[in-house]
Amino acid sequence: MPMYTGGQVLDLETAVKDGILGGGGGGGVICDDVTTPNLGKLDLKKMIEQLDSIEVPSVFICPISLEPMQDPVTLCTGQTYERSNILKWLSLGHFTCPTTMQELWDDSLTPNSTLNHLIHTWFSQKYLAMKKRSQDVQGRSLELLEVLKTVKGQTRVNTLKELRKMVTTHESARKTVAENGGVSFVSSLLGPFTSHSVGSEAIAILVNLQLNSDSITNLLQPTKISLMVDVLNEGSLETKIDCVKLMGILFAASDIVPSLSLLVGVLRLVKDKRHPHGILAGLRLLKIISTQESLGNSIISIGGVPQLVEMLPHFNSESLELCLYVLKVLSSIPHGALALKNCSNLIPNLVKLLMKTSENCTKFALSILLEVCKLSPEESAATAVNAGLAAKLLLVIQSGCNPELKQLSSELLKLCSQNCRASIFISKCKLTRTLQ
Amino acid sequence: MLDTAVHNMGLLCSRHKRGNQATTEENDRAAEIERRIEQETKAEKHIQKLLLLGAGESGKSTIFKQIKLLFQTGFDERELQSYTSVIHANVYQTIKTLHDGAKELALSEADSSKYELSADNKEIGEKLSEIGGRLDYPRLTEELVQDILKIWRDPAIQETYARGNELQVPDCADYFMENLQRLSEANYIPTKEDVLHARVRTTGVVEIQFSPVGENKKSGEVYRLYDVGGQRNERRKWIHLFDGVSAVIFCAAISEYDQTLFEDENKNRILETKELFEWVLKQKCFEKTSFMLFLNKFDIFEKKVSKVPLNVCEWFKDYQPVSTGKQEVEHAYEFVKKKFEELYYQNVTCDHQDRVFKIYRTTALDQKLVKKTFKLVDETLRRRNLFEAGLL
């Protein structure tokens, strides 16, 4: 028999089925939890936890804690609260209804069994649907993995595509694939004769899975890495980003020397102004491999330094920090410092960046400037001062930033003042004679 | 005179009338030809030109033969038979080279007795060397085969063969010597395998047009593959082919790091390949051309690397072996690959930013491998076309 509350129909099944309570899906499941309240409560707690990202109807929420109610009780004013919360409220000495502010004429707490029932039903329904979806996903992923072992050609590509979609959207799919030897199987698909379509999908799958050290070692084989580099160089933006991410994971765990083709590919990604995501992903990889000794010489040999310097004004703050880090590492090797010095727009670009974004950016920029100026003091100092370096350095020294930065700044300032004619220096600093 | 004039006038008139008819006919024909030319030019645009380049004996012609076998009708019986004389020639040339080589080594080496043929074989050796020096070779008979085998099995010749890298012994030597009996049979028709091993110095240019059939049996791109002679004197003919090339397949035989050129015994083959590759890369007409580098003869490389260190070649002098066996082979291969990669990027300018460059490990004699490799090349070129059309 339908019950009316403020003009709304609150027939259990209808309410849930028609989505009055904000839930979708028909076929309400009515659980008989009245006889086993304790068990019901435990289940409910678990379900609420597992469904924590779901949007719960407002009538289920306790006004005090803003959490779903597990034991709703109603006051004499007709307002419903979570039992433990309202008891706490009353124990603090309040004798009012928290929401209506009315004084309570009756201190009894009536268990709201109707609401309790509704809450339980709603959560059970949602929970079961979630479980089913998850099982579906798990089942399907397993199926796809099995199918992959037998098919070739275009079917293989399509199967991989579907598996990739599952793995990117569902945590349960990722778990299933990982637990059923998916990592080693998909890795085995990568080899010297893998086509681009297969390679790009396989990489997209692997990048979403947890890789243990064995898998990583397996994937670090030269032929597999060569394939990843090829896919990187020929792929769409998403594929490039996947490759770069995967290689980041692999290279972080080893001291493999990146090939020139890889660096060329990454640089190409980093220079693509239309796609800041790509730039960021590429720079992240560069940072990871910048610890490699031979990297410096490799990047220089492919003309990477001027390309990176040219891009400096176009980076967002996160990318900028990564790029400056890499340039700083390069500046500490002799060839690197030379290559940097030879970039005519290096100093102006760097000076502009000082104190503009993060402290780290300023720190790295200062280190680079120092190395370059040390290399050719007169020439670089003059350029730097002309670009307005002196004023910036004073700003750094006077600001409240890290002492390391101040140290760098004063060193640089000293270098510049030693190599610049005093008058020019002063005028650029906008200092008066007295301060000198 | 008047009637001549009238006669001529008449002739004139009729010629004029015939002229009209002729003109329309001519016009039609001309229009037809124009249409045909237009059609063919359009069709030509869709044909992708592939160029097989590389130094002599790098495997270009073998790849060419493989493509013919894979994507065309292969070799018919007549074509197969045409290779018989080539194969026999290869056999004679091998024996002659080895015999004369043994003589030279016997003179120059301190340990000359190693390279001295046994007494019985000396005469046979001279006879075969004389045959090998002729322009026309006799057919391989049972008797000649026996002679050849006697020489081949002579320890002096085997010792000489071990130093084959210093001579110009063709790579097919082993294969043909092993199959000698079969090659000499009266009704011998060369097999595909035999044809692939046969060595003929290509001169001039050879071309085939083919379409690699995809798995859906839909015809893909149309390719026209050009094969050229690799020796120095042949290279001046290359320039005529350099226009409108979609991809250059550059073959480099990585197993020849301890060998010298046929046309210049003082030049190391790998160094020659290196310089040639650089030269090709710098050609202006190849600015947008995709480069597929085939590091060929991997099967021979595999076996050689454990016996002959890579550093005998000046370009590879900084090579350091790290292990042994299969791992070492892989390590050596990666080293060579890296060298070529570095070479490529040293010769690249900002004009070449977008140029496709891929390296493939090949063994041209292995048909399955060539098929798989070409599938990848085809995929790359197709993607490249889509990319250039802005569809990727």
UniProtKB/TrEMBL annotation, chain A:
Source taxon at top rank: Eukaryota
Catalytic activity: S-ubiquitinyl-[E2 ubiquitin-conjugating enzyme]-L-cysteine + [acceptor protein]-L-lysine = [E2 ubiquitin-conjugating enzyme]-L-cysteine + N(6)-ubiquitinyl-[acceptor protein]-L-lysine
SUPFAM superfamilies: ARM repeat, RING/U-box
GO BP annotations, alphabetical order: protein ubiquitination
Domain annotation U-box: ranges: 55-129
Enzymatic class: transferase
UniProt cross-references to InterPro entries, sorted A to Z: ARM-like, ARM-type_fold, ARM_PUB, PUB22/23/24-like, RING-Ubox_PUB, Ubox_domain, Znf_RING/FYVE/PHD
EC code(s) of this entry: 2.3.2.27
One Pfam family this sequence matches: U-box
Summary of the function given for this chain in its UniProt record: Functions as an E3 ubiquitin ligase.
Protein name according to UniProt: U-box domain-containing protein
Organism of derivation: Deinandra increscens subsp. villosa
TrEMBL record, chain B:
Single GO cellular component term: cytoplasm
Cofactor(s) needed for function: Mg(2+)
Entry keywords, A to Z: Cell membrane, GTP-binding, Hydrolase, Lipoprotein, Magnesium, Membrane, Metal-binding, Myristate, Nucleotide-binding, Palmitate, Transducer
Residues binding GTP, per UniProt: 57-62, 196-202, 227-231, 296-299, 364
Ranges annotated as spanning the membrane: none
One of the GO biological process terms: gibberellin mediated signaling pathway
Major site of localization recorded for this protein: membrane
GO MF, one annotated term: GTPase activity
CDD domains linked to this entry: G-alpha
Subcellular location: Cell membrane
Presence of keyword Hydrolase: yes
Positions bound to Mg(2+): 61, 202
PANTHER family from the UniProt entry: GTP-BINDING PROTEIN ALPHA SUBUNIT, GUANINE NUCLEOTIDE-BINDING PROTEIN ALPHA-5 SUBUNIT
Domain notes: The helical domain is required for self-activation.
Assembly, per entry: G proteins are composed of 3 units; alpha, beta and gamma. The alpha chain contains the guanine nucleotide binding site.
Purpose of the protein: Guanine nucleotide-binding proteins (G proteins) are involved as modulators or transducers in various transmembrane signaling systems.
Family: Belongs to the G-alpha family.
Protein name as catalogued: Guanine nucleotide-binding protein alpha subunit
Organism: Deinandra increscens subsp. villosa
Organismal lineage: Eukaryota, Viridiplantae, Streptophyta, Embryophyta, Tracheophyta
